[in-house]
């Protein structure tokens, strides 16, 4: 509660005293009266009419009004009568914190010696640590036992100062707070705080007329995440600064930790430290709602030396790149190639981490990927290693390929003619690639499986979609000695790695014989189905049909437009369907590729 004139303050405290503590939801641990015995010079957002000198006996009255719910007060340590005030507060087990003060370091140290418990929002609304006029902050840094609150919003205190304070005081003395105002969690907009018109812009709360700080809008989970980021502290210390220490300060021995004899009050966080659920005395009082709906996935485009602009023409993709040689419709490689979930604005890798219950893949990372490509001249001759080699030498996954040709007719390199390793290496050394590689014809509607270690390259004149694991590891054998017009360099070759991984012999791989079947108005074709790797296929709809998988899956529209349930789609778009989702209804003539991942069982 902020400082108010006494008659208003009494009304507020009396109302608080009559309030019943809710049996579920967040635990209400009591009242912090930030005032009224403060220094007017450092009032910040406080109402001047509410600030006054210490009045003997007022704390006794406040405790009675609140029915012992008053837990903490903030006072200026230079106030006359501070010693008796601290004694009176401690008689009622009310913590005494210092802020809104013009005190010198000596005055503050004196008040700490008299029993003061620490500092409300250290650095803010108090005298600073300077070399000639040391103030309250100096006392906080010198004195070894008091608690120091830090507003860890990255705005009230620069993150570097937060880090320095942590290094000086350690986690044992620090308490992370929000200093949240009525605009907490409300987004950008205007509000009134302490009788002053304020505005919240980008999570910064400012007074409308002068632009000075007007509290904070972060939540406690944000303070927790920020202290981890700003200091690099272990998670155990972040818990200490956000949970253990506040309970110690307020002498609440039943909360603040998970030990025998304490209440089972705790919060479950996911890998991004977002709240999943909250428990109070072992009873779940909050569960994050996961919305099972269709999510549109926004692609990532790549320029390629061999690429054309058919993907732009066919699907209306917009990019400033010289060409869209490759379009990643589904990829989630954090910090590298990463699609975006339109509805949430998250990268797909972060969306996967935050919503594992929508995938239930049992994998640490999102397991599958798809990419469309449009080569107008031959791609480099290449292969992909298996998982064991890739992990040992690169720390990455391998990459088996499956390729469906959407349109066009041409050729591709698939395998080689060498019968022995010696013959293969001799032709590589002689750069006799025309003799070495095996070339087969391909056309729209073909699907080619490209296992680990298989030499391959796609010629020009086709548009294709590739299915694989969520990986991006390629070893090039030959790139026609081309110089990239953008980089002005030749692309790196990986001769040794190719020799390590090449399949010998490898002259028997051909397009897969496909077996379409009709079910519920959809002509389905399974391209590839390998547990622990990927499952992919296509759906053809003439007018209307339904489709369902138990697993999550991604749909990429190759041809046509229409609706998936009530969501309109067009060619080139990709949609994510969560696991355990009901049957989807597809309307409109279309051809749609799908990719999914499963651990066991046959689709």
Structure in a nutshell:
With 603 residues, the protein is of the alpha+beta class. 21% of the residues lie in helices and 30% in strands.
Counting helices, strands and paired strands, the structural category is alpha+beta
Helical segment count: 14
CATH architecture of the largest domain: Alpha-Beta Barrel
What is the gyration radius calculated from CA atoms?
A: 33 Å
Largest sheet: 11 strands, antiparallel
Q: In percent terms, what proportion of residues is strand? A: 25-35%
CATH superfamily of the largest domain: Metal-dependent hydrolases
N/C terminus separation: 60 Å
Low-confidence stretches: none
CATH fold category name of the largest domain: TIM Barrel
- Per CATH, the class of the largest domain reads Alpha Beta
Overall structural domain count: 4
Question: How many beta-strand segments?
Answer: 34
Shape call? elongated
The helical percent reads: 10-25%
Give the mean pLDDT: 93
Descriptive account of the structure:
The strands form six sheets. Strands 14, 17, 26, 27, 28, 29, 30, 31, 32, 33 and 34 form an eleven-stranded antiparallel sheet that branches. Strands 15, 16, 18, 20, 21, 22, 23 and 24 form an eight-stranded antiparallel sheet that branches. The chain has 603 residues and is an alpha+beta fold. The relative contact order is 0.07. The chain has four domains: 6-181 and 219-287, TIM Barrel; 182-217, no CATH class; 295-501, Jelly Rolls (Sandwich), CATH 2.60.120.10; 517-596, Sandwich (Jelly Rolls), CATH 2.60.120.
């Amino acid at each position: 509660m902020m400082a108010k004139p006494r008659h208003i303050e009494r009304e507020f405290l009396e109302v608080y005293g009559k309030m019943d503590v809710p049996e579920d939801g967040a635990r209400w641990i009591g009242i912090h009266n930030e005032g009224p015995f403060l220094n007017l010079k450092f009032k910040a957002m406080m109402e001047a009419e509410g600030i006054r000198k210490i009045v003997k006996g007022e704390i006794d009255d406040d405790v009675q009004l609140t029915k012992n719910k008053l837990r903490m007060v903030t006072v200026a340590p230079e106030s006359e009568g501070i010693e008796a005030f601290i004694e009176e507060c401690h008689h009622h087990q009310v913590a005494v914190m210092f802020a809104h003060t013009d005190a010198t370091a000596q005055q503050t140290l004196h008040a700490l010696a008299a029993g003061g418990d620490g500092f409300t929002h250290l650095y803010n609304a108090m005298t600073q640590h300077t070399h000639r006029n040391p103030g309250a902050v100096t006392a906080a840094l010198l004195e070894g036992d008091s608690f120091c609150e830090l507003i860890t919003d990255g705005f009230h205190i620069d993150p570097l100062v937060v880090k320095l304070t942590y290094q000086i005081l350690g986690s044992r003395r620090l308490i992370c707070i929000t200093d949240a105002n009525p605009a907490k969690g409300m987004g950008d907009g205007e509000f009134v705080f302490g009788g002053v018109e304020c505005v919240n812009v980008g999570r910064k709360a400012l007074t409308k007329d002068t632009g000075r700080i007007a509290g904070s809008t972060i939540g406690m989970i944000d303070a927790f995440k920020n202290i981890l980021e700003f200091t690099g502290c272990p998670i155990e210390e972040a818990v200490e600064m956000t949970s253990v220490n506040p309970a110690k300060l307020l002498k609440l021995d039943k909360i603040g930790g998970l030990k025998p004899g304490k209440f089972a009050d705790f919060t479950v966080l996911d890998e991004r430290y977002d709240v999943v659920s909250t428990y109070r005395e072992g009873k779940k009082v909050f569960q994050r709602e996961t919305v099972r709906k269709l999510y549109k996935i926004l692609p990532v485009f790549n320029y390629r030396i061999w690429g054309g602009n058919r993907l732009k023409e066919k699907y209306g993709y917009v990019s400033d790149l010289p060409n869209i040689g490759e379009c990643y419709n589904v990829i989630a490689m954090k910090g590298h190639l990463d699609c975006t979930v339109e509805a949430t604005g998250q990268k797909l890798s972060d969306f996967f981490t935050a919503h594992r219950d929508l995938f239930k893949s049992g994998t640490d990372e999102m397991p599958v990927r798809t990419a469309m490509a449009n080569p107008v001249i031959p791609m480099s001759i290449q292969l992909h290693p298996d998982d064991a080699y890739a992990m040992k030498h690169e720390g990455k996954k391998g990459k088996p390929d499956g390729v469906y040709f959407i349109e066009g007719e041409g050729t591709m390199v698939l395998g080689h003619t060498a019968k022995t390793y010696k013959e293969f290496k001799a032709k590589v050394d002689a750069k006799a690639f025309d003799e070495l590689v095996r070339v087969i014809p391909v056309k729209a509607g073909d699907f080619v499986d490209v296992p680990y270690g298989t030499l391959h390259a796609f010629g020009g004149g086709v548009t294709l979609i590739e299915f694989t694991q969520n990986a991006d590891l390629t070893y090039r054998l030959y790139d026609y000695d081309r110089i990239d017009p953008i980089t002005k360099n030749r692309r790196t070759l990986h001769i040794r790695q190719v020799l390590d991984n090449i399949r010998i012999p490898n002259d028997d791989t051909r397009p897969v014989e496909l077996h379409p079947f009709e079910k519920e108005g959809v002509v389905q074709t399974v391209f590839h189905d390998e547990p622990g790797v990927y499952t992919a296929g296509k759906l053809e709809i003439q007018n209307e049909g339904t489709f369902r998988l138990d697993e999550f899956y991604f749909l990429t529209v190759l041809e046509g437009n229409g609706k998936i349930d009530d969501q309109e789609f067009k060619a080139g778009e990709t949609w994510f369907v969560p696991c355990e989702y009901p049957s989807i209804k597809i309307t409109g003539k279309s051809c749609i590729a799908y990719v999914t991942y499963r651990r066991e069982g046959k689709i």
